[in-house]
Amino acid sequence: MRPEILFPLFAEIETLPGIGPRLKPLVVRLIGGEHVADLLWHLPSGIIDRRFSPPLDETIDGSIVTMDVWVERHEPPPNRRRPYRVICKTLSGTLVLSFFNARAKYLNDVLPVGEKRIVSGKVDHYRNEYQITHPDRIGTEAERAEIQTVEPVYPMSAGVTGKTLTKAMRAALQLVPELPEWHDPALVARNKWPDLASALRTIHNPEDAADLSPDHPARQRLAYDELLANQLALSLIRAKMRKLGGRVTNGAGDLRQKLAANLPFAMTGAQQRALADIYDDMASEGRMLRLLQGDVGSGKTVVALMAMLNAVECGRQAAIMAPTEILARQHFETIGPLLGQIGIKCAILTGRDKGKARKATLEGFANGDVQIAVGTHALFQDDVVFSDLAFAVVDEQHRFGVHQRLMLAGKGQAVDVLVMTATPIPRTLTLTAFGDMEVSRLDEKPPGRKPVDTRVLPIDKVDDVISGIGRAMRTGTKIYWVCPLVEDSEILDLQAAEERYRILVELFGDARVGLVHGKMKAKEKDEVMERFAHGDTSILVATTVIEVGVNVPDATIMVIEHSERFGLAQLHQLRGRIGRGDAASTCLLLYGSPLGQVSKARLKIMRETEDGFIIAEEDLKLRGAGEVLGTRQSGLQEYRLANLELHGDLLAIARDDARLIVDRDPDLQKTRGEALRLLLYLFERDEAVRYFRSG
Ligand code: ADP
Ligand code: MG
């Protein structure tokens, strides 16, 4: 239950002045929430200073000024294309206020002839005439104090004006209660941080640009509030998982030895190190929650398989869960035969399994006949019961949330969880994304991989590229052709891909060319992928939907159109789909000209390295955290007040702070703990609170 003192901040924004039922959805979309608190987290991005009142001949064109004017006469326009003009006197000369599509009655009301008014807006001069077109503010002497101010400028979107936001914000600020301080007093004193209410007031009523700078104490405080809320929630969940206790899973090693003997390769050093970490976790009394980070092709699957066998050696079950049907099937196809060879039974469960087959699979899980389960989130369903699930692997973590991890963990008595991701997340960001997990990295590729030859070339060369792939096709090569992102719009993406598909079909025939995109049903998609992997299709045209991890070893060419529009991490992931077999592979990055400096630098990185971690670090430097973790790809929590490039140092402090808090007061019952509960509720991390309350 949310504490009462926070109720005003969780009132609907509709209760604020100026936000009615029509405007509400627009504001919600803009601020990303529907509560007063969400509005307060919508920070200004700049200021407009209306304090300036220079003589007219000293004004700079385009600058904002506030003027005392005496209205002399109105000049209605001779035709609709000309503005309505109101001629005014000022102490330093004549100022014309002009209005397009004006209503005369309204203008006569607000600017009556012979009266004095205060006007504010952007001044320009044209020949010898000074004018303000559509003044932002018009008022009487009595309203001067409201006009001649410094105004915050908010990030805006269509339909929501700055005036509306400012007005609602004023009311919202009135609702901020006095809250007890939840931060360490020494930290607050050292940084001269104001309390939360004062910090919000400062930021929403900035007096100059410095008040909005990322290192202003008010801004730092808010960023830290958010970072600590996040880190604390993660620490609490992790501590709880630990306390829940695990079981000691430490098998005799016989199955693992058999499997290793059957594999055509030896484990890399990185794989061995990761396994040592994992076996340690499994053998300990605590609950395991570990992230295995490794580039595409770094060999995560075998690591997962070995760890699962450790559980099976103890007479228990293990499960591996993938985010999509295709990936689940692919795991099943790789793992199934390997397990079969050593006499272990493995079954797959996805949303597509129905009726009798599904029932049989569930029976196998429930009576323990099936030792290893492979599936999608269908494994979460209520009627899925395991005889004794001890270990779960979650592949491609990004598509799942903390919540789902907990659900899977709830399927067994004390399930150890290994999360695997192929997204190379820079070290600084690992912390925010996975602060609740230990991390192992596969930073060494299996030997014998041929590097991918990456070339960057302008899109005008596309005809040469097409003749090149025509030749390659004749030798049995498979080709991915990835089509560009167009303005973030799936529909346009699709049109571009369809157009490319049409051209290629014309040249090579529709038996040889396939098309996959996000709008297709899973089943259709699988069929096209299947024809590409094992059938006649030689060229697969795709929007960015090609599944992470899809494995087609014969695919050795990838063409990426308008590669400059992709994120580096995305390009890296895409490129990871080739270079999986023995043959040399080529990646052609086509770009549209002219190419900007940053884009040039980014494509150069792609050409120079295949190391996902280096690419991720460089991408972060060039673009910034929000985009590296881009919501579209990652589904990771985005911060609203903190900016990781600007507040990265606070993140490390928040993590240590959170650990200390959880060590000293694991149930948040002491005085500071009570206050910290408010912080968790305030940032809607109550999942963590609920979790430790329920015991
Ligand atoms: P990931 O899931 O990390 O993308 P996979 O587990 O699919 O990578 O491994 C990619 C390929 O590398 C597979 O064909 C796998 O059999 C092979 N592989 C894994 N480990 C090794 C190794 N130590 N030596 C050689 N090949 C390996
Ligand atoms: Mg994989």
Care to give the gist of this entry?
This protein is of the alpha/beta class.
What does this structure look like?
The protein is of the alpha/beta class and 695 residues long. The chain folds into 4 domains: 4-47 and 156-212, no CATH class; 51-148, Nucleic acid-binding proteins (OB fold (Dihydrolipoamide Acetyltransferase, E2P)); 254-442, P-loop containing nucleotide triphosphate hydrolases (Rossmann fold, 3-Layer(aba) Sandwich), CATH 3.40.50.300; 452-609, Rossmann fold. Helices cover 42% and strands 18% of the residues. The strands form 4 sheets. It has a 7-stranded parallel beta sheet with strand order 11-12-10-13-14-9-15, with helices on both faces. Helix 18 links the parallel strand 18 and strand 19 (539-542). The protein is globular and about 100 Å long. Mean pLDDT is 87; it is low at 625-637. It binds adenosine-5'-diphosphate and magnesium ion (MG). Belongs to the helicase family. RecG subfamily. Keywords: ATP-binding, DNA damage, DNA recombination, DNA repair, DNA-binding, Helicase, Hydrolase, Isomerase, Nucleotide-binding. GO terms for molecular function: 3'-5' DNA helicase activity; ATP binding; ATP hydrolysis activity; DNA binding. It catalyses: ATP + H2O = ADP + phosphate + H(+); Couples ATP hydrolysis with the unwinding of duplex DNA by translocating in the 3'-5' direction. Residues 281-442 form the Helicase ATP-binding domain.
